[in-house]
Design brief:
Elements: H1 2-8, E1 14-20, E2 40-47, E3 56-57, E4 71-77, H2 86-96, E5 97-110, H3 124-134, E6 137-143, E7 148-149, E8 152-153, E9 166-173, H4 180-197
Helix pairs in contact: 2-3, 2-4
Length: 227
């Protein structure tokens, strides 16, 4: 995320930054807000749950409480793996971006199941699909793949040296040709259904068949919420 800020955010001028999934846990200290020190920004942290580094709580999981075409930059770091219907969130990101605005998204490309709800891993083609669906331009897509032997990635060699965790980074831009009216219809229908379903809580995982391992998902706390 720091590299995205350096590469794409001008040092001059005032910028409005919306951070989707901004809440940090009690054992965390660093935030995306820290990457903007010394810049003239209005930072708005949004999340489905209140907590540290959250300025606005999302009353619906797929409705960002920010005006349309009002954000110069949207950040979302290590949140998209936890969003069940991420295509709805991408439509909302496109809505709140100003023409010429950028979205920076980082999400795991590999790593263990974590948190009570961990739905996805992302590759560059996944970011291509997100851009195509949301009407945004994909300016950069990069995945921290493990070493290769020929055309095959050597996943078995992932260790402390090659970094067990891997991320994919996507940079999206809202262009002047963004099909606003067409995607208004797509977005509102998509968000209506996504917000009605909410997430995966009403769809429990089936018990594993005899002789098969369980999914390895952490036990969900009784008070956990989708999002």
């Amino acid at each position: 995320m720091e590299l995205c800020v350096r590469e794409y955010m001008p040092t001059e001028g005032r910028h409005r930054v919306v951070d989707l999934g901004s809440r940090i846990s009690p054992n965390q200290a660093l935030t995306h807000r820290d990457l903007l020190t010394g810049r003239d920004v209005e930072y708005v942290g949004v999340d489905v749950q209140d907590g540290p580094n959250v300025d606005r709580v999302m009353k619906k999981p797929y409705r960002i409480p920010v005006r349309s075409a009002s954000a110069d930059f949207v950040f979302s770091g290590q949140a998209f793996e936890h969003i069940p219907f991420f295509w709805a969130s991408m439509l909302e990101i496109a809505r709140i971006l100003r023409p010429g605005g950028h979205a920076f998204i980082t999400a795991p490309s590999r790593g263990h199941v974590h948190d009570a709800q961990d739905c996805w891993r992302y590759y560059p083609d996944g970011y291509r699909a997100m851009a195509a669906f949301s009407g945004l331009e994909l300016r950069e897509a990069y995945t921290d793949f493990p070493p290769k032997k020929g055309i095959w990635h050597q996943y078995g060699e992932i260790d402390a040296r090659y970094a067990y965790w891997g991320d994919s980074v996507g940079v999206f831009r809202k262009t002047g040709t963004y099909p606003r009216l067409r995607l208004f219809v797509v977005r509102e229908v998509t968000l209506l259904w996504a917000n009605r379903v909410g997430g995966v809580k009403r769809t429990p995982l089936p018990d594993p068949l005899p002789g098969r391992p369980d999914c390895g998902r952490p036990v969900q706390p009784a008070d956990a919420t989708d999002g």
